[in-house]
Amino acid sequence: MRAVLHNGRVRDVEVNQVLDALTAAGVPHWVAGGWGVDALAGRQTRDHRDLDLAVDAEQLEACMAALADLGYQVETDWLPLRVEVAAPGSRWVDVHPVAFDAAGHGLQGEADSIHFDYPPEVFVTGCIAGRDVPCLSVAQQRRFHTGYQHRPQDVHDLALLDELTDGTATHSPPSG
């Protein structure tokens, strides 16, 4: 999901607004992408153009309704992999629906085509603006940074993930 842009940046206040709406709607969600890396670090380390969120696929309709209440409309539909929504003011959220089995293993996409695995241990807690938030683990974030040409922000995120892995970051990732 992508949240509000101000001077090309998503602010933590908009991230929290989206997370509050999803929580109120009962939609399980996890911060991913650049904001997810920063959540693991416990601080914002760079500007963010959007907010990526993994959400429980069974709650996708409730997720989309909660976002619609905030002014978001579908911009690009690439389901079952993802859907981008936008709102006035250049606000963006990139939603990644994840279907779970009884053991808590998640799958984004379709098993017989492009898909991403979410083992139960990748769901952890981070911190954005002093608030605990559900997010994806260092290992999962690293997996999502493979198979494509890295942009400057990806290089930054990978360096931060390295710091989190070797313990030199100021906030250690939660165990999980």
Number of helices: 5
**Largest sheet at a glance?**
7 strands, mixed
Helix content: 25-40%
How far is the N terminus from the C terminus?
23 Å
- Radius of gyration over alpha carbons? 15 Å
Mind telling me which CATH architecture this is?
A: 2-Layer Sandwich
Spell the H/E element sequence.
EEHEHEHEEEEEEEHH
Q: Which parts are unreliable, with pLDDT below 50 for 5 consecutive residues or more?
A: 1-6, 170-176
What class do helices, strands and sheet pairing give?
A: alpha+beta
The CATH class turns out to be Alpha Beta
Mean pLDDT: 89
Shape: globular
Number of domains: 1
CATH topology call: Beta Polymerase, domain 2
Number of strands: 11
Strand coverage percent: 25-35%
Pfam families: Aminoglyc_resit (PF10706)
Protein name: 2''-aminoglycoside nucleotidyltransferase
GO molecular function, one term: transferase activity
Keywords: Transferase
Provide a quick synopsis of the model:
By secondary structure, this protein is of the alpha+beta class. The protein contains five helices and eleven strands; from the N terminus they run E-E-H-E-H-E-H-E-E-E-E-E-E-E-H-H.
